[in-house]
Every structure is written in C-alpha cells, then in structure tokens.
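Reopening closed ticket. The problem is back. First fold of the pair:
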Amino acid sequence: MTLLSMAAAWLAGIVAASTFEIPPVAVGLFTLAAVLGLAFLAAERRALLPGVVLLVLVAGMGRVGLSGPDAGSQLATYHGRTQVLVEGTVVGDPERAGSWTRLRLSVDALTREGERLAVSGLVLVTLRPTPEIAALRDLPHFRYGDRLELDGILEAPPRLVEFDYPAFLARQGIDTVMSFPDVRLVAEGAGNRFYQWLYGVRHSMAGSLGRVMQAPQAAMGKALLLGLRDDLPDEQVDSFRRTGTSHILAISGLHVGILLGLTLAMSARVFGRRRHLYLLMPVVAVWLYALISGMSPSVTRAAIMGSVYLAALLVGRPRSVLPALGFAAALMVAVDPDILWTVSFQLSFAAVAGIAVIAEPLGTRLRSLAGISPGVHDRAGSWSALLANMVAVTVAATLSTLPLIVYYFGHVPLLGLPATLMVLPALPFVLTTQAAAGLVGLASTGAGAPLGWLAWASTSYVTGVVGLFAKVPGASVQVASMPAALVWAYYGLLGLAIWRGVIGRARSGSPALRVKGLARGPDGRPVLPWWMVTLVGVAGALVWIAILSLPDGRLHVAFLDVGQGDAVLITTPGGSQILVDGGPDPMAAVRLLGERMPFRDRSVELVVLTHAHDDHVGGLLEVLKAYDVQMILERRFDYASAGYEAWRRAIDAEDASVIQARAGQVIEFDDGLVIEVLSPPDALGLGTGSDLNNASVVLRLVYGEISFLLTGDIESETEAVLAGEGSHIESNVLKVGHHGSRASSSRRFLERVSPDVAVISAGRDNRFGHPDAEAMETLSRYVPDDLILLTAERGTVELVTDGRRLDLITEH
C-alpha cells in the first residue's frame, strides 16, 4: 500500500493548495519540516514511510504553486469591442446542430482597424456556412484543420442562471466566444495528420451507419460507438437523463469503465483465467473504443486508468490494482493539476476504482447466491456466471459514481440501477453489431444491411426500455444542491462497508437460488448453445416486425413536425415512399423517416423539392446521403444560399433521375396513386412579391375519391393563377401555403379548393408569427376550426385513406 499512500498524499497536497491558497513561504517551511522529519526517522532507523508521505504531500502543494495563476488568453483584451478579423485553425471535431456548427478555433492573428497583430487563444465559434463553402465541399462543411478567417465580435462567455458556463469553458482553456461571424475558408488540412485521419474515419463510419440503418437507431449507434451525439433527438436524451442512464449515451470514464468490466468478464469466459491471454481482449477493446470515439481527453484518461488496472491484474497482484490506479491518477494530475476538478476525470477514476474494488467480490457473492460453483464448466452455468458479472459491474459503477452525478447534475435517478441492469446486458451486442454494420457498410451498403437489421433490433431494445422507464412517474428527482461534505461522507461510508466486508463478501451456507439452464440432451449438455438461442430470438423478432410493417393497402400522408418548415411523407398503398421537402434541420427528416419506414427499407422512390428556401431543403441533404433516392422532382432556380448550393452539389452527384417540374406533368403509381403537377408553368412569372415562393412546385395527389393539394410556399399571386377558370384544384385536404402567412390563403383560392381539412406546418413560437391571425380567420370561413390542424399544436399530422374515407391521426 506504499504506492497508494504516496499517490493519496500527492493528490491531498494538490487539493489543499488549490483550496486554501497556501503561500510559497509556508510551502517552503513544510518542505523543510518534511526533510528534517525524514532525516530523523532515518537516524533512528525507523520506518521512513510517514516522512516520505509528508514530503510527497508538500510536493503536491508545490506543484500547484508552479502552475501559477491563469493569465487567460490574449483575446480577452478585445472582448465587446468593435468588429475584428481573426484568423486561425480549427482544432477538434466541429459539432453540427441543425443548420449551424460549433467549433474551436486556435487564433494566431487578429486585425483591428487595419492593424494586423499576432495573438493567441482559443475561441468557441458558432457559425453557418456561406454559399461559397457549401458549393465547394460536401457535409460537414467545416472540418478539423481548416484555416478560417472570421469577421465578427469577440465576447466573454455568457453567465447562465443554473450553470457556470464561463468556468466550464475555462477548464477547456477557452475564455472567448464568437457568434455567427462572416466566414471565409482560407485553406484546409493544416492540422495534425493523425487527427485528420481519425476524424475522417469517424465521419465515414457515421455515414455508413446512416446508410445501413434507420435514423433513430443509427443516431444512437453514432453516440455509443463514435461519440457523435449531434443527431440524437432531444426527447431521447431527456429520457436517458430522467432514468439515470445518461452514462450509456456519453462516452466517458464511466462508459469506458463499464466496457472494461464487461469485456473482462466475457474474455475470462472465453479464454479462462489460467493464462493472461484473457487480458488482451479488454485492453484492445478499450483502446479501439477510445480511438474510434475520437480520443477525447476524458476517454483517453479512462483508457489509461483501465490499462493500469489490467496491468495490475497481469502481474498477479490483485491488491496492486488500487495503488496502480492511484499512481495513474497522480501522474495525470502532475501533468495538469486542473484536471482534478473536471467532472470527466472524477467519474473516470470513480468508475474504474469502483469496478476494481467492488465488482469482483460482489460478482462472487451473486454467483454464490445463485448456486453457481466456481469451477462450473457447463454452458448454462458459465453464461449465468457472466450475467452475474455484468450485474456486479453495473452495481459497482453505479455505487461509485452516484454521489458525483447527484452533486454535479442535480438529480437523483431513482430508477437508474434497474434501468441500467436491463439495458447493460444488451450493450456489448449493440456495440458489436453497430461496429460490424458500420465497417461492412463502408465496403458495401447491401452487405452491411443485414448486420444493420441486427443492430437496429438491439438498439431499439435499449431505447425502448429507457423510454418505458422514463414514463414512470418520479423516475428522477431534482435536488437543489448537494453539499460536498455529503459526497465525502458517502465515500467514507462506502469505503467502510468495503473494508468491513459488507459489500461483496460471499458467506458460507447462503441459500442457493438455482438458475435453470437451457434444455439438456442425454449427455447433459444444452441442446442449443446460448448464442444460437439469442440469434434465433432476434431473427424471429425481426421477421415478425417485418410482417407487421407490410403495406396495409391505404394511402398515408404525414405532415411531419419539423419545426418552422415543410416536410410531407407520403406512403403509397403499395409501400413506396415520396418525400415532399425536408424541413430546416438536416437530421429531423431522416429521423422522422426512420420512425415511419420499415427497418429494412432503405429507398425513397421520389423526393420533391418545392423551392430552394432553407426551411424546405435543409433536411433533404441527409435524406440523399442516408437513402437510395430513385427520382427527384424540382424546379431549378437562380438562388444563392448555403443550403441550396449544397443541394445542387448533392443531386449532381446522386444516382437518381432528376426531373424539372412543369405544370401538366402527371406521375402514376401502380397502386393507383396519381400525382399531378399544377405549378410552376414553363415560363416562371418573375416580378412578384416573392418570386421564389411563388415558383414553388404545387402537387395534387389523387387516390380514389380523395385528393390532397400540397402548395409549398405559394402566395396570393400564384393562388390567383391556380384558381383561374378551367383549373381543377378541388381537394379534400389542403396543405396551407407559406405556413399560413398573411400573403397566402386568399378567399377566391379557398373557394375553388373547397377543402374539408387544412394543415399548417409551422414551428412553435416562430419569429415570423405564422400562422397569421388574418389568414386563420379567412380559413375558418371554409374549414371547421377543429379541422384546421397546426403541427405546432398537434405534432405530426397523418391522414390515412382507402380512397373513400379519411382517418386522422395526430401526435397530440
């Protein structure tokens, strides 16, 4: 325990110096006292450990003094002043969120009032691509190693009510932010070659997962496997938070610790513990996981701790695990004392230490209670032992990190342990199938699809279980604050319980709860191996899901809730998909399609872009990447925006038939659906109040006796043309033009359409004031109020018809 005592003394010295600001003179006096004490012990031929521990403690105090005060970056001088021009290199992997991107820029030059200055510092930048950048490169538009020139205002990070945002950024070395500057791409490839390759692999894998799996499950795979959480729906993230299973989403020390424990148990099951070969699988798994997830500092630290733990097992001294972990922690803190106060470091150390100390004895106790003898060799008993080890790892990680989660995040996840216990056994299968599907999908989307189905099934189980637990009242209890003293008290009691053997020690004579295994043959062995039973069960579930998702012979028209924008998913009676517009969010349309399309279906028969505005084209960019699009209907327009430039670049590279929409075109499907193109005409009428809106592609869907009119963003000028004599625009369902703005829904037009149902696609509390009160009043004269349906209020609105009657389904 000598190494552990010295590591603890080192950390205690750093904590003391950081907390009480001990002056250098006092540190010097403490050092002199420690040296004299050590000399006295040596002279008296007594144990030197107390003197060495005291000397190491004082050295820890001195290390904090050597760090010196944080001077901040040179950029802080220019906060809140006039607009400046900064130039620098993108460091780290930029994060996308909707149409904008957040990245860290290492600034090396600043120009103010014509004077160019050499400066240094990190800036957290939120920005959107320009049309020039979007036309130049595919998504992602901003990448690691880009040299950017930004024209904007430097500011200090804002202070939030319930979160110390400046302190959070300061721990990352950032004291300056810049929001939505003008941006110019100067050069690319200026970063480290290794990280360029690493981030390229991550994004290639992410694209492969998006092609072989439906979006909600693919987004989960990107988060679990690659550490890319940009695509996760907010409601799903909230479900994990409420149930105390957020650690499963975020690749952190806790996650690496759980992976280490699981792979160690599985490797011991496969190779046995007699040879040290069983330690190879965990170390490879942990570092491969750290590599593919981007080698973030938190994951790297956790991988180091995990490797130290495995090294201690390698030398055959279980008692050396904690000293080794303590030494690893002390070494990291010696390099950077500030990491001691980061949440990720504390969770990393707590999780790995908890697994190292608690998991093994707790697993022994569980196996004893289940009546599984240590030398059992039959498959049922071995897999039961593996399950007991998984439970032990879960409980150990949960017990060791619970007070930190409560202290930092302000909630007590009452259902965290049972939810994690139900989800965790599926995690290795999820990670394995996701990784296999992504890797095979890089070579061939078709070959990766079957693996994607397996990954879809296992990931759906995880999200389904978490979703069910999240619906339980009181799944998570918010707490105002937790005193630090309670955290220390918790760990003190936990340590006492471990020391006294309350946790984990198996007692002789415990009643055995026998676990029944699989059906056995005459030789006493299971008739079917465990893995085969699992595989057959998953395959059977997929077959039944596929059968239940077969077309029902009816037309489904879903007006998707994509916020302030338009997206309409049409599923024909024969099961073909037509997507009209994609909304503003690059991932929302893909996610909503994934929720409504069969897991095995990776094709969209027709994509329609009504016009080039970002709230219609944004989501279609990811649809082209994730699905095999067979035909595209659009009307090309001379319009400059980042979203439209990216669309034109994408469809030029897409292997799909591109048709320029013109009034009079008719598309017929074999299952009886007819699509009529009513606008725009051959010659676009320019000079209106909004040329682009009025040039929208207008469609009329006819199936049996039921018809739908999809109007894009047309305004009164085009409505007047469509309502002219001889036109056939009568429809049962009207998608109201331009989100219900004042410029749409003219009386003459509504009289000619004579709709029974009107749907308005608009975002909640949007800045445009859609729908307009005057337009709503006009609509109410032609459509009953309860059949004027707003996606802002009802969520996704779906209308289903057999050609004779209409059924309405809404989310709210």
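Second fold of the pair, where the issue appears:
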Amino acid sequence: MACIAALVPVNIFAHGFEREKLIDFQYNIPSVESGDDFHFERFEDDVFQVKDTLEKGVQDTLGNDTLVDAKKPFLETQIDYNADDSIIFSISGQQVFLKKNAFVKYGKTELRAHFIELDLEKKEAFAYGIQDSTGTFVETPEFKDGSEEFKCKELKYNFDTGKGLVTEIITEQEGGFVHSEITKKIDENTFYLRNGKYTTCEHEHPHFYVKMTKAKMIKDSKIVSGPAYMVLEDVPLYFVGLPFGFFPFKKKYSSGIILPSYGEEQRRGFNLRQGGYYWAINDYVDLALTGDIFSNGSWGTQIRSQYRKRYRFSGNLSAEYHLNKYGDEGFPDYVKTKDFAVRWTHTQDPKANPYRTFSASVDFSTASNDQNNAYTLDKIVNNQKQSSISYSKRWPDSPFSLSATLRHSQNSRDSTISLSLPDVNFNMTQIYPFRAKGKSGKLTWYDKIGVTYSAKLKNNITTKEDELFNSSLSKDWRNGFQHRIPLSTSIKVAKDLTFAPSVSYEGVAYTNSIRKEWDPDANDGKGAVKIDTLTGFNYAHNYSASASLSYTPKIYGMFTFKETSKVAAIRHVVSPSVSVSYTPEVGVPRDKYFRTYNNEITDQEVEYSIFEQGIFGTPTGAMESGSINFGLDNNLEAKIRTANDTTGNEDLKKIKLLESVKFSTSYNMFADSLNWSLIRMTGRTKLFNKKLNLTFGADMDPYDINSSGSRIDKFKGRLTRADVKLGFQISSKDFQSSDDGGGDPVPTGYVDFDIPWSMNVDYGWTYTKPGLKSSVTQTVRLNGNFSLTPQWKFNFSSGYDFSQKEITTSSFGIQRDLHCWQMSFNAIPFGTYQSFNFMINVKSSILQDLKYQKRHAWQDN
C-alpha cells in the first residue's frame, strides 16, 4: 500500500451543477486493478479512507481525472457553495463536505453553518454548529428560503420535497418569536412543533413565554397549539393555562373578536369594557365596534374606523354613546344620564391636489360626556372643545379663490355652544387695472391703483346645548351676506411718509330687520324698550371715500462700553408710527337704516340701527369721521464679548434684552367727548438662553369714572388691566458639558447630572379694574419628568391657585421598563378626580390582553 499526497482536480456534472475544485488531502490507495471502483468514507476526525466497491452504472476514467455519474440528473438549478476551511468530495461525487463558515445556495434557498454535508443522491443537506471553549454553540445553521429566515442548532433539509427536521429553532412571526425543541417542516408554509414556546421577548432566553406541548404553525397566519400554560422568569404558572392556544399573526389586516377588559366601580358596579368585533374591510379602511356593560344597568357603545389612501388622504372617525345610571331607581339620589361624542380627523396629502384642499378636525360631545366616561386627566379637565371642517379651492392663472368652513366650539362648564354652519368666503386678490402687463421700472401713482373683491356668507348661533335642536333658523340663528369692493393706491410723499387714498363699496343682505319702540306698560309699569323682528329680505349698502397719511421712521441708538467690559454695546431701535385717517360725509343718507325711539324715562331720542342684530352690522351711513393713531415699538439688544478658545480672539454674541415693547393709542377728531382711546402696552422677551419666556401687558384709561363706574370727560390716568406671564423650561441637558468644545461649559457650582430630567414652570398674574371693583388672579403650574435609571421614569403635574388658596388638579405617574413587559402607575391623589390606575402588561400588541390591572375610578368619589 502506498501513501501518496496529490492534487486531484474533480469535475462534477449534474443538471446545472457544474464546479471544478482542487482538493488537497492525503489518502491511502490499495493496488487498483483496471475496472475497480472506490469512494471515500468520512470518519469522526474528517480522515477519509478508500473502500473498494463495485457499483453498477458508474465508470471511472482515471486518465481524465473525472468521475461521471451515469444516473439521471436531478438538480434543477446551479448550486453555489463555499467554505473557509475545506471543501471535500466523495469519490462517487454524490457527497460534498464543507467545513467552517460553510455556505450553500440552491435557487432561493440559502444555508450557512460551521459544517454542511450535501447528499446529492438523496437531495438532502445536513448542517450543525460547533461549541467554543465556553461550551456555547457558535456558527449554528442559518436558513433562508425566500422570505422565511431562522436560526437553529441542527438542520436536516430535503431540496426536492421541501421537508426538513430542525432542532432548537427560533423564528420571528410578525412581532412574536417562536422557540421549538424539535420542528418538522412539512412544506413551505406548514410546521409541526414539539415543546414549543411563544413569546414577544426577543432574548434567546426569554423572560416569559407561553409553553406549548405540541403545536402546528402556518407561516404568516397562525399557531394552533394543544395544552399551553404561562412561564414567567422560568417559573411555570400552571394555573394560567388553557386546554388549547391560538395565536394569529398576519401581515395583512384580519377581522376578529376584541376581548373586553374587566373592572369594578363603586357607583356602576362590575363591568366589561371595550369588548366587541374588529372588521378589516379592506387595505384602505377598517371598522371596530365595541361596547361597555355594567352590573347596575349602565352601558355604552363605541364605533371606530381608520382609513387611508396613499398620496390622497387619511383620517379616522369615532363615535360613542353612553347611558349611565347612578343610585337606585326610585330613590332621591338616582341619576340617569345620556351622553354621546363624535370625533373625526381628515388630512389631505399635500401632493393630492395643489388647487383644492379639504381637512377636518371634529370634537363634538355632550357637556357631561368626558366627566362621566373619561379616565385620563387631560380629557376630564378639558372644558373647551373646538371643531373645524374646511374646504378651499383656487383657480389656476386667476386671482379668484373660494373657501368654506364649518366651525364649532363649546364650553362644558356652562354647556354653551357656538356653531358656524357655514362660513363661506369668495375672494379676488388685488389686481392693477391701469398697469400695463409686464411693466417694470418706476411705477406711477395710477400704476399702483389696486382693486380687490371679497364676499362672505355666514350663518351662526350661540346657545345652550339643550336648546340647540329647538332653535329657529330665522329667529335664533344670525345669518347674512356681505361683499366689498375697495379701490386704493399709495403715494410716497417722502422717505418715511406715505399718502394712501381709497374708495370702497360695501353691501349686506339679511333675512330680517328690527323695530324698537317704548312700551310704557312693560317692566311692571316702569316702561321698557319693545323689539319687534320683521322677517323678509333686506339689502343695505354704502359707498365711502377716505385717505390716510402715515409716518413710520426707524431710529437707531447705540451705546458702547470700554474694551475691558464684558458688554461691548447696547443697541436701541425705536419704531414710531403716526397715521391720520379721514372719511368725508359721503354715501347713503344715515336715516335710511337708522331709526329713533323716545326713552320716556330720560325723555331722550335714542338712535338705533334696524340691522344692529345683523351678523355684519350696518354699513356706516354718510357721516364724517377721522382719527389719529399713534404707535411706538422698542427693541433692545446687547453684544457680549466671548473668548474663542481656538484662536484666542474675541467674538461678539448678540443677546436680545427686550424683543418688543409696544405702546399704542388713538384720538377721535370728531367725537364730542372722550376722544382718547385706551393707552395699551404689550411686551415680550426671552432670557437665560431662551429658557425663560416673559410676556407682559397693561391698559391705561386716560379718563376718570363717576360713582357708578361710568367714564367721564375728566383726565385721570387709571390702570384698568395688567398681566404678567412667565414660562421657564429647564432640563439636565442645560448642565451637561461638551467634550468637543462646541457647547457651553457647566456653570460653576452645578453638578453634571447623568439622570435625564426636565421641568416646566408657568406663572400667571392678572389684575383688572374696569370700574369700581378690582380683582387679582395668580396661578402657578409645575410639571416635569425624570429618569432615575434608564428603566425607571417619573412624571408629575401640579399647581396652586393663590386667589382660591388651593392646589389645582395634580397628578403623578411612574413607569418601569421591564424589557418585554412594562409597568405603570398613574394617580390623581386628591381633589374631585381622585383616582389611580396600576397596570403591568406585555408591550406587544399581539398579547395586549396579557396584563394585570387595578384601578380606582374617580366616579367612585
């Protein structure tokens, strides 16, 4: 027997399998006679030994160094393979052995492992990993077949039938993970599992799972298991078990039952809430119908729907109805309430139509709905609701546009509701009829003559909630039509002096008008004004001319400091404005729309407009008027010297000391008394690197008041209103140093906290004295959050009302991240809405019903 070391070129041809490899190995060759055949057998140490065989149908041509299989080829496509350590073929060519980082690809099937054995005759692959020095398996098989991917400890797979046997597999199925001790692959979509686990924890050793003794898994569809029970931190909870399990997971929407949550309340009793049915209508819209039921007879129902059309629009719609019973029927404390709510949001994609838009934001409900049925503090304390549905259209290459809006607002405290159904506007942007098309260069005064057009249609009402559906459209609703055609131009008299004459036409249309007369028998014989409403179409109009002269200069002041000072300079910008407007006595005679009645108590003629209750008022008749308007705006900035660490030079940093402080008032030139209006002051600024927002304002009346609180024509400055609002935001980032030198250093005396936190403080102070009595309101609100560790989060919100001398509604919450679980505790510790809610639950929505919840509802107080 001779021992030979050789390089043997091997060519294998089989139905698309075509590869030439040089194999370097040692083997022992016995004496070989012509016609003998041999192949290699693998031992545990990967040494191959020659064994004599006599196989029919196989011919060896040693002179050509080829092995040709005379059997019928069976592979349908080319096999790609590779390995870092060795690729070894059997003498028959029917087995291939790949070692270390082995890779095989056949069509859409890919396999990676430490060791792979291919049996071309049986069309099978066998793969396994290897243990490292710590006993951990590495380079374990990774299998991919189209969209199917998984890892396992050991794999046997048949390319022809698609069947396989897998040991210790972990697969991901739509947010969940399936572990199996032994898995049998029947076809592309069907698997049988033994000793399986289903969990939403992505750890190799999950924190929790549902133990399945045996199960059938249909890919991208569901798992159906036999007896199953819960395992938490390796502790089996047999009492949390089921005779069978069902876990659906589909990539597409699917219809199904929504399991209710269980609860208990003192006033309404035991309950099942939010149980019902979910209907996946199609890929664009769904529908969920749920309900609540209480042991005392209360119940509620909800309907929710979401819809979306890509590149067109998206939105959601929800409605709810509740019938609540409190107390026992027949007793004095028995209360029965009926509440409903409708919410709708609709958003149009900006790319859907550049000339037409539609949007909706609707939040409409009965005044007591949130107070009786909400569980979150935000909804409970929300006393203001607003809705808007808007449509707009503009015509390309034209100045015309149309918009229509439906508005709603309500106050839950007093059940006041305001509706505007609809509010339509048609506008024409300014055009210049006397300007030549495409004219450039200097424009004359008539080139600047511009004309616009606007038309409005309104219909609104303000009433109480219980009176809304009994209101009369003609008597209770305020509606009307208005259109205007102003024509104006401007002439630059000097640098900051502008003269602007204008003429305009205004018309309004109403469906009713009023008449007033004195009724001496009213008010128990004391007399009162009687108002009669006359139904019928009425149109009123007026034309007018006016002119204004405005002066708006800017004055700059600069104060510089010494070079040794931290402050380099302070700049003050003053923007005064003065304008004079005058309207001559032209237009429709005033007595056409104005009437008088005699007040027998004062024996005076009182003038009134027959359209004074109209939504647009009355077009001003031919009456001379004029006013002088004064304004003064101030801006104060500073430049601070800051040292540049890289160059040693000094940079100047601009800081706003006062962003704006405005003063304004006006003087009526044609009033017979009380010519001056209120002197108003407003201001705003941001301090401490924009962390502190400050706004303030005040109103001063230049005239005195009499003993009844009415203004009299006597100068005496009175402060009628003043307010200050402070908003301060601070967080841990404000105290963190920067390693790159680009950030602000940590202030001296402060600790560089690693704990993320933030806090907001809002303070408001308001003083009012419009007449003889004054009032002061003062509140402070504090809210924030901090993370003691990356897994613990705390939040809080509270405040204090100084005028009422009480703490406002307060709440706090704690959240704990438990990796695949989460724990939360939220509480309102005192007050009307005192309540708490504790819950520990799985994060994944797939197992959203796997939770424990304990709560105390504020309705029990």
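Update: turned out to be a display glitch only; the data is intact. The first strand starts at residue 2 and ends at 14. Confidence is low (pLDDT under 50) at residues 1-73, 739-753. Please close again.
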